[in-house]
Amino acid sequence: MEGLYIPKRSKPWKTKLKKAIFIILITLFILLLIALIAVFVVLPLVFMNSLSLQKKIVFTNSDLNSNKEFYETFPQPGFKNRYIIVKDLNGSTNVSIGLWQMLPTSVTLDLYDDYAIDYDYMLKNSTHDILIYFHGTGESRDDSVLKYRVFRHYFQVIAFDYRGYADSTRADLTEASVVSDCIQIYKWVLEQTNAKIFVYGHSLGTALATRMIAHLSKENISPVGLILESPFTSFLEEIAEHKYGKLFAWLPYFKATIINPLEKNGFTFDTKKYILNTTCPIMFLHAEDDDIVPIKFTNKLSELANLRPNSTVVVNKFDAKFEYNHYSIYKNQFYEYMVAPGLITTIILPTELISKKNYSIAELPGVNNFYVKVNEKENITLGVWEILPRSILRDAMNNNEYDYERILKDNNQNVLIYLHGNAADRTEFAPLYNILREDFHIFAVDYRGYGDSFKGEMTETKMVDDIFQFYKWLHNKTSSNIYVWGHSLGTAIGTHLVSNLKNDNLTTTGLILEAPFTSVPEVVSNHTVSKLISWVPWYEWTILDPFVDNDIAFQTEKYVTNVDCPIMILHSKDDSIISYLYATRLFEIAQNNRDFSTQGVVRYHLFPEDSGYDHMEIYKEPFLIKLVENFIEDCEKFKKHKWVQ
Question: What's a Gene Ontology MF term here (predicted)?
């Protein structure tokens, strides 16, 4: 009918489609809600009440199927698979720990028949230091073969699997039980070898290694050095910062359901607590792009480690641009130089040089062994030899109750402080002392950590300050002229010392530098190995800058211009340790930046190559005593001239 409105009917399929979409959306929402509840509510609750799940989070690679034959027949020359039996915490249950003993590469190359190698003998009589490796939670000992390849350039390596890992016995996994196993493994190695021992931990292994060393320190047992790669402050803090842990860290019940149960069951791995009870030097290695253990943990731990009174800390950070993340720091081309037995500090400052000599017995007559406390806060006492001048030697030898302090006060003989090189102690220079006692009353000092001097943090500032305090002690005991003689490393310490004396209105009469260098970074940069890698853009900040950053640069060139007394430099042209070119450069720096009227002359004596004196034997120079006496005349003339002014 015309004009009549007839409404359109909606199509049935559109209505059904809308309903289907609505139902799907509701279903997806419900499923998402269920998933969110399962993940963010149920899972934390299950974790809170499941000890086995907590153990699996902590010890990720434990209880996985392993092929024992794989470890026993691993196809690498110089590898020995062993099983070491340790006692469980209850003292009655035996736990078998799977372990690889890996010979140094150089040793392996010399031994063609792997079956004929006596591995017990090789461990006992190792000519290389030993490195005990603690792997991370998501690894077993076969995961770090490429890293071992680097270690074996310098070490004989011991790598083992914790209980429950790889082919080690399945046993109750707790922090305490695993640490107990580690302690027993360390003591086993200690009993089997006469070599020095280093410890290397990665990730979870850093926590186990640190707690082990803290425990061993109670028994006066300590490795030579500890290397911590990607460490965390505690597992409780790490889990909150882990990339997966952050998914839950925002939950208001995160602490109640995640942190508190771990703490209750003893899974704390509190490295920040135990690191304070270690005494050995520590090196930290961490990549800035590590998304499993953030680098801020190394920053915090290194600060804590620096609070320890008796040790050294070195930190190596790797730029994020290298993309090393958590597992690949070993790929850095300088890695092997960082982890060599000469840790950066021990290359220059061998803190393990704690001698068992009897320092009260000297091969020279007229030697008085005594000790001077130079740092109350750190409890640092230095061992000293007083070598009497020849002019009073006969009198001293005929008098068993000779008053050394009185003769120091009353005698007007020139006094000499002798500062030795880095790989020595005060006992090793008797031939030189015997020559110098013609003109000097000698005091030979061992730095902190050397000889029988007390151990302490090994930095340039600390070492120089110790000698500064000794100088002031000696200055208060005598009115005689005081000279300083430094050899090798001692030249850097001596120059820095004399430069600092003016801060207390003190000055020495003369400074003698035997085999000096300009600075450690310059010496390193001119080394043959360094020249091969100096072209890379990050060479300076990875190799040279750490010496300055860690206060072990010994920049003699910086301080020599601030020495207000005459200087005599001695060097042999055939010196194979420190090139004479450094002495020449140091002489030029001192000569060209000096006010001779207020600072005195600079003498430089370079002995010819055919003299054969090398680094240690300038004392054999027949005219040495004449050179010394001429220098004394220079110093006395300068002092008189300065006094008149």
Answer: phosphatidylcholine lysophospholipase activity
The token pair that represents 536 in the structure block: 């890379």
Residue ranges of domains in the chain, CATH in brackets: 68-348 (3.40.50.1820), 367-644 (3.40.50.1820)
The DSSP secondary structure of 423-492, one letter per residue, reads: T--GGGGHHHHHHHTTT-EEEEEPPTTSBTSPP----HHHHHHHHHHHHHHHHTT--S-EEEEEETHHHH
> Inter-axis angle of helices 175-192 and 204-217, to 10 degrees?
60
Looking up tokens 């842990």 gives 245
Separation between Cα atoms, residue 70 and residue 81, nearest integer Å: 10
What is the residue whose two structure tokens read 């890992």? 165
| Residue 486 bridge partners (DSSP) | 419, 513
CA–CA dist 635, 509 (Å, integer): 6
Is this structure's pTM higher than 0.90? no
585-641 residue pLDDT tens: 999 999 999 999 999 999 999 999 999 999 999 999 999 999 999 999 999 999 887
Strand order in the sheet with 129-134: 79-87, 94-102, 155-160, 129-134, 197-202, 225-229, 282-287, 313-318
For tokens 């230095």, what's the residue?
382
- 164 Rama class: left (phi>0) / alpha (psi -120 to 50) / beta: left
Task: For 574, list phi and psi in degrees, rounded to 5.
Answer: -100, 15
| Nearest-angstrom CA–CA distance, 202 and 206 | 5
